[in-house]
Amino acid sequence: MDDKINLLRHTIATLAYRGGKALRGAPPEFSAFRAGETTRAPGQILAHIGDLMDWAFSQAEGKETWHNSPPLAWEQGTARFFAALEALDKRLASGVPPVCPAEGLFQGAIADALTHVGQIAMLRRMAGCPVRGENYHKANITAGRVGPDQAKPNLEFD
Fold it and tell me: Which listed site, 19, 30, 52, 122, has its alpha carbon 20 to 30 Å from 132?
């Protein structure tokens, strides 16, 4: 498999690991938390991340489409997040080269999704339900592990 595709798959696994950590254990009211009048709520951000992953999949297929999905209940939105990651990873692992350049997938949807996972983590802290910090360099992240079952953290801190 192409080195660029391998790096994309590792990045998607990183997104699953970091995203899973930010999404797990959020209280039900967190989905609607607002840091300010003009900010998106975490549920809206999570829906947007799902849209980004669907968009990346469509680009890889050469049939670029975009949808603005409404927020789902937090657990459903989390399930959609992992399902979209799994679909994109499976597409990249198929051995069929994506129609669009790997760099475009990274610099668009995937990089944007990483940013939004960071926003959700920051909003968790602001909402009073923080996620523990972690040395992500030490995390056990493996290409292809993109579902909700992630490795336990190796080195967390407060």
Answer: 52
> How many domains would you assign to the chain?
1
Q: What tens digit of pLDDT does each residue of 103-152 get?
A: 999 999 999 999 999 999 999 999 999 999 999 999 999 999 999 999 99
Task: With beta carbons less than 8 A apart as the criterion, state whether 141 and 17 touch.
Answer: yes
**16 band by pLDDT with thresholds 50, 70 and 90:** very high
Length of the chain: 158
Distance CA 121, CA 11 (A): 18
Q: Which residues contact 66 (CB under 8 A, 6 or more apart)?
A: 51, 55, 58
What domain range includes position 88? 3-157
What CATH number does residue 81 fall under?
A: 1.20.120.450
d(CA 100, CA 124): 35
Count Cβ atoms below 10 Å from residue 110 Cβ, excluding itself.
21
**What is the average per-residue pLDDT within 46-51?**
98
Tell me what pLDDT residue 1 has: 63
| Residue 35 CB coordination number (10 Å) | 14
**Which tokens in the block code for residue 74?**
């937090």
